Amino acid sequence: MGQLGAFSGMEALAEGPLNKKNNGSFVVAYRHSFVELASAAGLNVGTAATPRYKDLSFNADLGNTKAGKFSVFGIGGWSAIDFLGAEIDTTDLFANPNQNAYNISKFGVLGLKHSVLLNDRSYIRTVLSASYTGNTYTSEDLRLDENNGQPFQLNDVNDGLTTYRLSSFYNNKINKRLTLRTGFLLQNQHIDTYINTRENQADYDGDGRPDWVTQRDFNGAFNLLEAYAQTQYRLTEKLTLNAGLHSQYFDKTEDFVLEPRAALNWKFTPKQSFNLGYGIHHQTQPLPVFFFRERQPDGSYLNNNENLGFTRNQHLVLGYDFKPAANWHFKAEAYYQWLSNVPVDKTTSSFSILNAGADFVFPEKGLLVNEGTGTNIGLELTAEKFFSHGYYAMVTVSLFDSKYKGSDGVERSTAFNGRYVANALAGKEFQLGSTGRRFLTLDSKVTFAGGRPYTPVNLEASRAAGREILYDDLAFSENLDDYFRWDVKLGIRLNSAKRKLSQTFFLDFQNVTNNENIFAMQYNEVKGNVGRVNQIGFFPDVLYRVEF
User: Fold this and answer.
1) How many whole angstroms separate alpha carbon 41 and alpha carbon 35?
2) What is the H or E stretch that residue 357 is in?
3) Which range among 23-27, 97-101, 244-248, 357-361 has the greatest average pLDDT?
4) Residue 405 pLDDT > 60
5) pLDDT tens-digit map of 312-356
6) pTM of full prediction above 0.70
7) Three-state SS sequence of 498-523
8) How far apart are CA 252 and CA 225, in angstroms?
9) Of 195-199, 389-393, 528-532, where does the model show the most confidence?
């Protein structure tokens, strides 16, 4: 398959047999951004504030051998975006017209999977993999310069995480009622991270310019070991119990936890079932958090994060499943989560690590303690018609309430508490003519979502500081406007009469009503006011796909 879009870029995919004797096969896919393709063709499309990317993924099933079944898999990606102050509008969301900023991200995974049948009741599956994620970020202040006349550098960030994983489990169907599975996952994580910054820093040496501050600088490795055992037992023809015990040990903090989990499924009719589940889950903090430091007025650094423990989550789920016909599926699920041991500020504030990821900047805080809490309660509904008789459809509704408490003890909405999300999508294929080789496709999707909470800007303090300052005591007290978007895609597929070839032309219209969905309310350093930043409006794309 090959596909080219006017804005989405190029995609290519190939799959086929590797070894017919052993039933081996392969699949490989590649994507490349439109900007780089157009530049290579001699078109002047520019690269400022335009993402460039490429990625490759593959899976090779080597088939059955005497030693078992092997497969090799991998994925790799690279992306970059430059924000050049001279080419940035004063209302731009991502950048500051007084700065140049350069971002590069890399990701890669390479792995080997092995499965071996021990007998007709049991097997072992093992996966060995290595992965890497890394990003660099540099920025410059165009209003200042270095002593050599170069732009004044503000930030120098370089993060790299290399992870080696070995997982294996043994599965045994002991009898018709009882199945046992036990296994482990060992991860060796090597982190190389540093942040040097002069942004929003004091002039410690009195030369009239902010000084460099090293917020983190670490190169080392840690291990996370997980081991588990679980059983599935059919109590009756209608009742099935899944129960297990999961454990984790993290050698960075020497924390060890046991996590019991259980679920009961009651299939009270051939087409309907209820399920009830409860489990305890723990999660380590993102590794860079352990090395954040805060500089004190005397020049020393404090780091309270080195011994942050797991965040704990208790999860209760009640679900209902209904399959009235082969192509229809209905599902309802209610859930409740209790979160504890959440990192929050050691001093009194509204900060919580639960809100990290809501914007483009990860919070750099070095004095955190595991004393925060949070709750999530919700209901999810799904109605789905699988593709048959030339059409498909799906409706999903999610109603939820997400709250947290920081070190100030005040319960607030989290940054993600939009209260509801609803999606409706459908597609229909129409045959053109009587040859069965030409088809018209129509796909549409409608999305409604509640506006995300945000923290209002302290305008007076922001103007005095020359940068955005938020009201900490009013964290996430206001909500953005609700979200609405309608997408429509039209396509014509032509199947060749003489060759195994299919061509498809698409017109993809995103946000056809040109609805002005808000993304953020933020302080504009150039204008000195709080401005509304909208998401993308009406966006058409043209695509061509060939399959053979």
Assistant:
1) 10
2) none
3) 244-248
4) yes
5) 999 999 999 999 999 999 999 999 999 999 999 999 999 999 999
6) yes
7) CCCCEEEEEEEEECCCCCCCEEEEEE
8) 11
9) 389-393
Supply φ then ψ for residue 223, to 5 degrees. Answer: -125, 140
pLDDT of residue 91: 57
In whole angstroms, give the CA distance from residue 484 to residue 421: 10
Contacts for 434-441: CB closer than 8 Å, 24+ residues apart = 435/497, 436/495, 437/494, 437/495, 437/496, 437/497, 438/492, 438/493, 438/494, 438/495, 439/492, 439/493, 439/495, 440/490, 440/491, 440/492, 441/489, 441/490, 441/491, 441/492, 441/493, 441/504
Phi/psi at 156 (5° precision)? -140, 105
Residue found under tokens 């925060």 = 372
In the block, residue with structure tokens 């050691």: 346
Both tokens of residue 20?
Answer: 């017919």
At 16-29, the pLDDT tens digits run: 998 777 788 999 99
Secondary structure percentages of the chain, helix, strand, coil, to 5: 5, 65, 30
CA-wise closest residue to 259 among 208, 310, 296: 310
Amino acid at 406: G
Q: Where are the beta strands (DSSP E) in 2-89?
A: 2-5, 9-19, 24-32, 52-65, 68-83
Strands 24-32 and 9-19: antiparallel
Distance CA 527, CA 342 (A): 38
Give the list of residues 6+ apart from residue 248 with CB closer than 8 angstroms, or none: 224, 225, 226, 255, 256, 257, 259, 282, 310
User: CB of 454 within 8 A of CB of 415?
Assistant: yes
Asked whether the beta carbons of 365 and 335 are under 8 A apart, the reply is: no
By CB neighbour count within 10 A (0-12 exposed, 13-18 middle, 19+ buried), where does 284 fall? buried
Number of helices and strands in the chain (H, E): 2, 29
Q: Give dist(CA 19, CA 355) in Å, integer.
A: 49
Q: Give the 3-state secondary structure of residue 35.
A: helix
Half-sphere exposure of 316 (CA within 13 A, CB side): 6
Which H/E stretch holds residue 37?
helix 34-40
pLDDT at 15: 95
Q: How sure is the predictor about 141, in pLDDT bands with cuts at 50, 70 and 90?
A: confident
CB atoms within 10 A of CB 358: 16
Nearest to residue 510, comparing CAs of 484, 489, 480, 528? 489
Q: What pLDDT sits at residue 520? A: 84
CA distance 195 to 65: 49
User: Do 404 and 398 form a contact (C-beta atoms < 8 A)?
Assistant: no
Four-point Cα dihedral 538, 539, 544, 548, nearest 10:
-90
Architecture of domain 65-547 in CATH?
Beta Barrel (2.40)
Domain boundaries, the chain: 1-64, 65-547
Could you tell me which residues are beta bridge partners of residue 274? 266, 320
User: How far apart are the C-alpha atoms of 154 and 95, rounded to whole Å?
Assistant: 14
Q: What percent of the chain has pLDDT over 90?
A: 68
Q: Is the pLDDT of residue 208 over 80?
A: no
